[in-house]
Structures are given as structure tokens and as C-alpha cells.
Amino acid sequence: MSERFSENLKIARACAGITQSELAALVNTTKSTISLYETGKREPDILKLKALAKALNVSCDALVGLAPLPDNEICKFISEYGIKRVKAYIDALKKLE
Q: Is this prediction's pTM over 0.85?
């Protein structure tokens, strides 16, 4: 599996606007398994990879880094700055409201 898989999975999930728990339910696994995928401590088998791609509306190639993720502004922002920085930015904006 590509080194980019865990980061691409986080980005694709964020772009889909779903939680780890919601993704887990969609692909018939547990939240902890999704967390392990996103931290790079575990990799899915091919059937689970296909289920993840379908649930996130991306290709398997995009998840493993062989093709780009969908080209939208939020995904570009997350890809460029990373999910942690984007979350911190959103939290800071919420405090300003």
C-alpha cells in the first residue's frame, strides 16, 4: 500500500463530511479499525479498500496515491495544509464568532 494511503483516507473522509464512526458503519467495520488505517498502523485488504472507496465516492487509485483525490477547494485546502491544521483553523474561526 502507498505511504499516502492513511493521509488520503483522512482527506477523503473529511471531504465526505463523515466521522470515523460513520465511515466504519458504511464499510462494516469498527471505528478503531478506521483509526488504525488513518494512523498507518493497519492497512485494509482489497475488498475493504474497495468498500472504503465506494463509501467515500473516490477511486481506489486515489486512496492509495496513484491518482489525485477529487478536485474541490476543501480537498485542496486539506491536502495542502493537512487535516490537523485545517481543524485548528476552523476551531479558531468558531471562537471568533
A: no
Residue 82: give the domain boundaries.
5-96
Compute CA 27 distance to the chain's CA centroid, rounded to the nearest angstrom. 13
pLDDT tens-digit map of 14-32: 888 889 999 999 999 999 9
Q: Distance of CA 41 to CAs 16, 31, 34, 58, 84, Å?
A: 22, 14, 10, 22, 18
Closest CA to 75 of 6, 19, 31, 17: 17
Q: What is the CATH number of the domain that holds 89?
A: 1.10.260.40
Which residues in 1-23 are b (16+ Cβ under 10 Å) and which e? Answer: eeeebbbbbbbbbbbbebebeeb
**Tens-digit pLDDT profile for residues 67-78:** 888 766 777 777
pLDDT score recorded for residue 2: 64
Q: How many structural domains are present in the chain?
A: 1
